[in-house]
Amino acid sequence: MRYGFDATRKDIWKSRELEQAIATRLNCGFVQLTSSGTSALTTALASLGIGAGDEVIMPSFTFVASFEAVLSVGANPVLVDINDSLTMDPVAVRKAITSATRCIMPVHMCGAMADMDAIQEICRDHKLILLEDACQSIGASYKGKSLGTIGDAGTLSFDFVKTVTCAEGGAVLTNNKTVYTNADGYSDHGHDHIGNDRGAELHPFIGYNFRISELHAAVGLAQFRKLDTFLSIQKKNHQYLQAELSKIQEVKFRTIPDPAGDSHTFLSWFMPSRQLTEAVVAEMKAQQIFGGNFYWIDHNWHYVRKWDHLKTVKALNRLTPAQSAALKKLNTQDFSKSDEVMGSCISTAIGLSWTDEQLQEKATRLAEVIKKVLTNASPQAHYSQQASLA
Ligand SMILES: Cc1ncc(COP(=O)(O)O)c(C=O)c1O
User: Fold this and answer.
1) Taking a C-beta distance cutoff of 8 angstroms, is the pair 203, 191 a contact?
2) 188 CA to middle of ligand 1, Å?
3) With a 6 A CB cut-off, is 170 part of the ligand 1 pocket?
4) CA–CA separation, 360 and 379 (whole Å)
5) Burial class (CB in 10 A: 0-12, 13-18, 19+), 172
6) Is 21:13 a contact under the CB 8 Å cutoff?
7) Average pLDDT of each block of 10 consecutive residues along the chain (390 residues)?
C-alpha cells in the first residue's frame, strides 16, 4: 500500500521514490504514479476537469486506451487524421475544433513525438487544454523537453511491452500543482492525504482506486534506473537498421519533428505504395521474419479501421447520447489520409537484447525481402503513394 501505515512500513516508500526519480530525470514538477497508463489517462483527464459534454481531439492512430479514458470521464472522443509523423495532423486538428472542444490529446506514438509547436499554438489560439499521451515514448523529448511534460499534463505507461516496465503501472506528469493534487486524490478514492492517519483523511471530491502498489513501484524503480542504458541500446540498433534500409532508395522513413528527441523504440518505414507494403508483409510472413514488426492498418488495437466495437457503440454501460452520437459519426468519417499513411507503413520494434550478429541478420534479411518485392513488382505499384510521402 503506497499511502499510510506509517508505523508498519519501516519508512519504505517505493512509489514516492519512483515519483521523485521520474520527476528528476524528466525534469517535471510533479509525478503521480497510477495502476496503468489507461488509469493515468483517466486520472489526468479528470484532474484537468474534463467531463460530460466536452470534446477531446485525439488521433486515429493510437491505442484503444485513449478513447477508453475519454469515454470513462463522460467526454466525447473526436478522432482526426494522422500524417507521416504517425501522429495527429495539426491541420486536421484545427478543422475538428468546435465550441464543445476542451482538450487536445496528441499521442506520441511508437517512441517519437507529435508536432508540439503546432499543437501548442492551436491550444493557445483556442484556449484548449493540452494532454500528452506519452505512454509509448518514455525518455523521448521535443526541443529538449521530455514528452509528457510540455502540456498541462502527460501520461506514461509501464506495462509489459514498454521500454520501462513494472508489469502494470502508469504515471501522470504535470507542472501544475493543482492538477497534481487532483491526480493524487482522484487515484486514491478522493483522499486528501493530509496528516498521517489514513482513517481520518477527508474526501474533498469523488475518486477511484487507480493506485500503483509498492511492489510494482519497486520493480519500476529498478527498471527506471536503466532508462538511459535502454535508450542508448535502442539508438544504436535503430541507427544501424535505418542505415541499412536507407540504402534502398524506395524506402522512406517516418517524419520526426525533432529527430534528436526520438527514443528509438521503433523504426517506422514506408514502402512507396500500399500494394508494395502488403507484398512486403506477405513475404516477411512467408519467410517467418514478421515477428516484432507491425503493419498498423491491419492491427486490431491501434488503428480506427478495426475499432468496430467503438464505431458500433458496444458498451456494457449506457453512454451519454452525445457520446453515442460522436461514436456513430466515426462510421462515415473520411480517414483516407490516415489509411494512406497506415497502408504503406511498417514499424519494426527495436530489440534491447539483440546481439550484433542478430541485428545484422535482421537488417540483411529485411533488405532482401524489400528488394525482392521491388524487383518483382509491376511498375504502377511503385507510384501510387510516392508523391505523398516524398
Ligand atoms: C498510446 C498508449 N496510451 C495508453 C496506453 C495504456 O497503457 P496501459 O497498458 O499501461 O494501460 C498504451 C498502452 O499500450 C498506449 O500505447
Assistant:
1) yes
2) 20
3) yes
4) 30
5) buried
6) no
7) 91 97 98 98 98 98 98 98 98 98 98 98 98 98 98 98 96 98 98 91 96 98 98 98 98 98 98 97 98 94 95 96 97 97 98 97 98 88 52
Grid coordinates given for 368 = 532482401
For the beta carbon of residue 192, count every other beta carbon within 10 angstroms. 14
Residue 2 in grid coordinates: 503506497
Q: Are the C-beta atoms of residues 136 and 148 closer than 8 Å to each other? A: no
Q: Which residue has the cell 533488405?
A: 367
What is the pLDDT at residue 387?
47
Residue 155 to residue 35: CA distance in whole angstroms: 12
Distance 155 CA to ligand 1 centre (A): 9
Which among 138, 98, 141, 92 has a CA at the least distance from the CA of 116? 141
* Cα(38)–Cα(331) distance, integer angstroms: 25
Radius of gyration (C-alpha) of the chain in whole angstroms? 22
| C-alpha cell, 191 | 483522499
3-state helix, strand, coil in the chain (%, to 5): 45, 15, 40
Specify the amino acid at residue 295. Y
Answer whether 0.90 is exceeded by the pTM: yes
Phi and psi, residue 295, nearest 5°: -105, 95
Ligand 1 contact via 36 beta carbon (within 6 Å): yes
Give residue 385 CA to ligand 1 midpoint distance, Å: 30
